Amino acid sequence: MSNLKDNIKSLIAKALKNPSDQAESDQLDQWLKESEENIKHLQSYNELWDASEGIHNYRSFDSEKSWEELNKQISPAKSFSIRPLLKVAAVALVILSAGFLLKPFLTNHGKTLDTGEIAYDAPDFNQNHTLNDNSEIWLSKDSKLTQDSDFTKERIVSLKGQAFFDVQHDPSRKFVVRSGKETITVLGTEFNVINEDNQFEVFVKSGRVEVNTGKRKIELKANDWLIKDKGDYIVGTKPAVEFIDWVGTKFNFDNVALTDVFRDISKAYGIKVVIDPAVDISNCKITTNITDESISEVFEELKLIAGLEYTFKGNNYTVNSVNCK
Amino acid sequence: MSVIKHKDDFKRLFDQWFNPLCNYAYSLITNHVLAKDIVQEVFLHLWEKKDQLNIKSDVKSYLFKSTYHKTIEKIRHKKLQQKLAKENLILLEERSSETLDFDHISDQFKLKERINYSIRQLPPKCQEVFLLSRKNGLTYDEIANDLGISKKTVENHVMKALDFLRKNLKN
Question: Which residues of chain A lie closer than 8 angstroms to B96, CB-CB?
Fold first, then answer.
C-alpha cells in the first residue's frame, strides 16, 4: 500500500497542508474514485495528520523521577502507622506472659511520670489524644499537655503550646486548664488555647468557657476570641476556620444529600454557601471522606465527584451548577 | 468501587498515563515544571482517595478531568504573569468543563503519546521535517527554505513519516 505513485503522494501531501489548486484537486478526486481502498487510505493519512497536530510540543517528562517523588509520599512507612508497634507487642505477649506488658498499651495515650501526672505531647506532628474521661484534645506540634490529677474530683490539665479541646460534658467534675497565670474553666465543650512564651489566646468554638486571669474572670461564649495584648485581655471574634485548619476536620459522607454536606461544611469552615436558585441539588448525594482539607480542596473535591461549578468571594461560595446522576 | 486495590495497580496507571497527562496539562498551562507538578498532585490525590472517590466514569476520564481542574486552579491561583497563560485561562473559562469530553481527550492524548514514540524512531531528517510540518503556519516552502532542501524532498519526508505511523499504529 505504501507503494503509492509518487505523484499521488505529492498530491496528498499538498492537500494536507494547503487547499490544492483546481487541477491538483481534480487529480486527487480521480484517484479517490478508483477504489474504496484509496478513500480509506486518504482517511488514515488525514486522521494521523490531525492527531499529530501540535506534536512538536509533545515531550517525554521524567516519569521515573516523578514516580520516585510520588512513591516517597505514598509509601506506608511515612504514614506513622501504629501497626508495626502493635505487631511487636503482640509477639512479645506470646513469648512473655501478658500481665504487665499490657500496661504500655493502656497508657498509649500518654506517659505516666514519676509524679503520677500523665504527660501528652506531639513531637512530630499535630496529635489527637483521648483523655481518660473521653475528652479529646488535639495538640499542635511541639506542644505539651499534662494531666495533674487522676480526674476523680476535678479534671485539671496544664498546657504549654497550643491545643484544641473537645471536653466531655460532666457537671460533677469541672474541667480546668492551667496555663501559667491564667486558669480556664470549662462550662461547655469545644475551645482552642494558645499558651506560648508571649502569647495567650482562647477561642471558643461552642459552649462556654471561663477564663480567670488572676485578677478577674472573663466568660467566653461560642466564637469569642480572647487575646492577651501587652498584659490586657481583649475579647473579640474570629472565624473558626483558622483553628479548624490546624486541628483538622473529619467528615465521613456516605451517600449524604448535598444540602446536608453544605450545611456541615459551612459550619465547620465558617463559610456561607449560596445555591443559585436555578440549580436543583435536591437529588444529589455524595460519598466521600474529608480529612484535614482546606475549604478550597473540599470544593475541588465536590467539583470532581459532583461536577460542581462554583465561584467564591472571601467566605461566600456560590454554586452555579451541579451534575449528579 | 475502587479500581486501585494495590500499589501495583496504581503504578500501572501511573506508567500508562503520566506522560499523556503531563502533555495535556502542558497544553493548557504551557509550563513544563508546573505541568509535571500538577500531574503528580493528581496522582497523589488519587492514591489518597483511592478507596473513597466515587469515580463515576472510568479512571482515565477521571485523571484527565482532575488534571484539567487542577490546572485551571493553578493558573488562577498563581496568577501567572505570562500573557499566554492568561489568554489560555480566558479560553478555558469560556467552555465549562461540562461540555468537555474527557473520554475523548484521554484518547487523543494516548494517541499523541504513541505518535510521539513512533516519530522518535524515524531517521533524524525525516523526524525534523515532520515535526516542522506540524507546526502551525509553516508551509512546505518555508521548511524547504529553512533546511536547504527541495520542496519535493519535504513532501517525501512527510509522507514517509505518515506511512511509518500508519504501519506502527495499526490496531
Answer: 309, 321
- Pairing state of beta strands A155-166 and A136-139? antiparallel
* H-state helical runs in B79-169: 83-94, 102-119, 124-133, 140-147, 151-168
Which of A38-47, A57-66, A188-197, A217-226 is predicted with the least confidence, judged by mean pLDDT?
A188-197
H or E element that contains A163: strand A155-166
Per-residue pLDDT at A130 exceeds 70: yes
Does the beta-carbon distance from A61 to B36 stay under 8 Å? yes
Distance, in Å, from the CA atom of A148 to the CA atom of A310, rounded to the nearest integer, reads: 49
User: Is residue A286 a contact partner of residue A258, using CB atoms and an 8 Å limit?
Assistant: yes
**Gap between the Cα atoms of A105 and A86, Å rounded:** 9
pLDDT tens for residues B110-160? Answer: 999 999 989 888 998 999 999 999 876 688 989 999 889 998 999 999 999
Q: Is A238 on the interface with B (CB under 8 A)?
A: no
> What is the C-alpha to C-alpha distance for residues A144 and A140, in angstroms, rounded to an integer?
9
Q: Do B40 and A69 touch (CB under 8 A)?
A: yes
% pLDDT > 90, chain B: 33
Rounded distance, CA A186 to CA A302, Å? 37
Surface of B (111-150) touching A: CB under 8 A: 111-113, 115-116, 119, 130-135, 139-140
* Burial annotation B28-49 (CB, 10 A radius, 16+ → b, else e): bbbbeebbbbbbbbbbebbbeb
Domain ranges, ordered by start, for chain B:
1-117, 120-171
Interatomic CA distance for residues B127 and B125, integer angstroms: 5
What is the rounded CA–CA span in Å between residue B151 and residue B142? 9
Residue B51 per-residue DSSP state: T
Q: Do A48 and B27 touch (CB under 8 A)?
A: no
Task: Tell me the chain B residues in contact with residue A325 when contact means C-beta distances shorter than 8 Å.
Answer: 56
3-state DSSP call for residue A137? strand
Chosen from B158, B160, B167 to mutate, greatest number of chain A CBs within 10 A: B158
Predicted ipTM? 0.78
CATH class of the domain defined by B120-171? mainly alpha
Contact at 8 Å (CB) between A236 and A221?
A: no
**Alpha-carbon Rg for chain A in angstroms:** 33
C-alpha cell at B89: 485561562
For A43, nearest residue in chain B (alpha carbons) = B166
